[in-house]
Structure to design on (190 residues):
């Protein structure tokens, strides 16, 4: 297990999705058990997603992964610096020419807020911050054309957790967290 200092040091690389496997697993294990680090990573990830939505597309994910670790740390540092600049209001962005990440409420069947979904250009990132009554949930999409499918199952720790899945090409109407046939939370996109 790692401590908060190491988790915060690795958070930019995790938010940029360039952290190596074993280190990534250690940081994620810590983040799942530490509300403070989870909030910090959530905020950093949302900022990075918004920044990446403004950047021109890269040649390929394989090329990005082939970069030496030293370059990834520089990119992570640059992303953090840009995030702080945005947070301080130093950078002004023309939001009409780019599609930044958006946040959609995740609610229980009774309508109580339990978390949110960050909608990025290529992924959906789900955060369950208030405990739901389940330990393992499926992530079920309902598409605009009526198709319904479960993307994957995820384990919740004490009813909370977070994960990222690839965004489908087609328009998503709802993302539901399901325990068997029971819906435990839902996000509506349209």
């Amino acid at each position: 297990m790692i401590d908060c200092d190491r988790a915060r040091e690795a958070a930019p690389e995790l938010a940029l999705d360039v952290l190596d496997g074993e280190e990534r697993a250690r940081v994620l294990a810590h983040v799942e058990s530490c509300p403070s680090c989870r909030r910090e990573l959530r905020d950093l990830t949302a900022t990075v997603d918004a920044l990446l939505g403004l950047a021109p597309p890269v040649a390929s994910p394989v090329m990005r992964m082939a970069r030496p670790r030293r370059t990834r740390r520089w990119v992570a540092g640059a992303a953090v610096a840009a995030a702080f600049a945005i947070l301080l209001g130093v950078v002004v962005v023309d939001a009409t020419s780019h599609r930044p990440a958006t946040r959609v409420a995740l609610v229980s069947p009774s309508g109580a807020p339990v978390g949110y979904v960050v909608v990025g250009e290529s992924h959906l990132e789900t955060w369950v911050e208030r405990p739901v009554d389940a330990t393992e949930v499926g992530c079920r999409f309902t598409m605009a054309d009526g198709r319904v499918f479960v993307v994957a199952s995820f384990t919740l720790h004490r009813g909370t957790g977070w994960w990222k899945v690839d965004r489908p090409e087609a328009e998503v109407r709802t993302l539901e967290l399901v325990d068997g046939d029971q819906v435990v939370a839902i996000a509506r996109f349209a």
